[in-house]
Design brief:
By secondary structure, the protein is an alpha/beta fold. It folds into 2 domains: 197 residues, Isopropylmalate Dehydrogenase (3-Layer(aba) Sandwich); 144 residues, Isopropylmalate Dehydrogenase (3-Layer(aba) Sandwich). It has 12 helices and 12 strands. The protein has a 10-stranded mixed β-sheet with strand order 2-1-3-12-11-4-5-10-8-9, with helices on both faces. The chain has a two-stranded antiparallel sheet with strand order 6-7. A hairpin with a 7-residue loop joins strand 6 and strand 7. Helix 2 crosses helix 10 and helix 10 packs antiparallel against helix 11. The structure holds 3-isopropylmalic acid and manganese (II) ion.
């Protein structure tokens, strides 16, 4: 009956209004804004397709703002960003600003203040993407690195004395609390279970030298595994050996959990074996209830390609995919990943800037059209 159809639709809309998410957009420096624009193009296509809404608000944090105002980050930045459901970040790093100022003052400060204690970095080789590792293909390279994101040498403990004299001394201390290690481990174990692949979690450490900090990690790892995750196989590799296995036998890994600095280093290697910075995405995750997470392409601001419409936006698009996944829009996220795989498998000549066979905006269009 006609009236019944109308009534049901209205009732449905009333009962479940369109889901909507508020996204803070930090384009940042260099090619950041260009790739974020393509990411948003694809996110909007996914939102239309899967019937949810994304509201964006832009923030101008980055090198240009710092050079203009002398302020790296407003003091209320974290409080403002906490009001959003997620943050979509382009890149931080400006050729006219000394190294460290923006990285520590924006990126690390936001990670710390928003307590994004997980840095999630999938290493997955898509079809058609060239890996520098001979004889390895997509069936061999598919693992995830869970990098602790708030402690370690990054905590900023240490200092210099007698600067500028031959007696200068510098210290920088790796700091780990049991609490901080446990919460990272819990995330990694849960993720390994959720992935449901080899059900293997590898702790990457350096227990033969850094006996204090990685001794703590190792004890916490086995205690938690034994008690709460009997279904997950536990493995261990020193960080130096990890870099070796990542090249020689990447298929051995399912999920790797590690400290902040080791995670930083091994994920650049990870990015290379999955096809380079053009494709590598990551999430700075605060998994706690109400936590606000921040998603970014893990490559830098690539100043020499800025404004040329040649940079590869797939890493930013992949970051958008991770953002939707974390927000619970898992179907939309899966569709974006499918579209990325179509594009890498059938369209692009290379993932390198300027060599894709398409411009930045064209690659965004290709993916968005496949999502729509
Ligand atoms: C990364 C980067 C940052 C880090 C820098 C820019 C502070 O290398 O996200 O991996 O070391 O974490
Ligand atoms: Mn890094």
């Amino acid at each position: 009956m006609f009236w019944r159809g109308v009534f049901t639709k209205e009732l449905e809309e009333f009962m479940s209004p369109k889901k909507s998410y508020n996204i803070a957009v930090l384009g940042g420096d260099g090619t950041g804004p260009e790739v974020v624009r393509e990411g948003i193009k694809v996110l909007d296509a996914a939102a239309a397709k899967f019937d949810f809404k994304l509201n964006y608000q832009e923030f101008d944090f980055g090198g240009d703002r710092y050079l203009r105002t002398g302020e790296v980050l407003p003091n209320n930045a974290s409080d403002e960003l906490r009001k959003f459901d997620a943050i979509f970040l382009g890149a931080i790093g400006h050729p006219d600003v000394a190294p460290g100022i923006l990285e520590k003052g924006i990126l690390l400060r936001l990670r710390f203040e928003l307590d994004q204690y997980i840095n999630l970095r999938p290493v997955k080789l898509y079809p058609g993407v060239e890996t520098p590792i001979k004889d390895k293909g997509p069936e061999h390279i598919d693992f995830v690195v869970v990098r602790e994101n708030t402690q370690d040498l990054y905590a900023g403990m240490g200092g210099n004395v007698h600067i500028g004299t031959p007696n200068e001394v510098a210290t920088q201390t790796a700091v780990y609390s049991r609490f901080g290690v446990d919460r990272a481990l819990k995330y990694a174990f849960d993720l390994t279970r959720r992935r449901n692949k080899a059900k293997t979690l590898t702790l990457c450490g350096k227990t033969n030298v850094l006996t204090f900090i990685y001794g703590l990690w190792e004890r916490a790892f086995h205690e938690m595994g034994q008690k709460d995750y009997p279904d997950i196989k536990r493995d261990y590799a020193h960080v130096d050996a990890t870099t070796m296995w990542m090249v020689k036998n990447p298929e051995w890994f399912d999920v790797i959990v590690t400290g902040n600095l080791f995670g930083d280093i091994i994920t650049d290697l990870g990015a290379m074996i999955q096809g380079g910075m053009g494709i590598a995405a990551g999430g700075n995750i605060n998994p706690d209830p109400g936590g606000v997470s921040m998603f970014e392409p893990i490559g830098g601001s690539a100043p020499k390609y800025t404004g040329k419409n040649v940079i590869n936006p797939l890493a930013a698009i992949g970051a958008g995919q991770m953002m939707l996944d974390t927000l619970g829009e898992t179907e939309a996220a899966a569709r974006i990943e499918q579209a990325i795989m179509e594009v890498t498998g059938k369209k692009l000549k290379s993932l390198a800037a300027g060599k894709m066979g398409y411009s930045t905006t064209e690659v965004g269009d290709l993916v968005a059209n496949l999502v729509a």
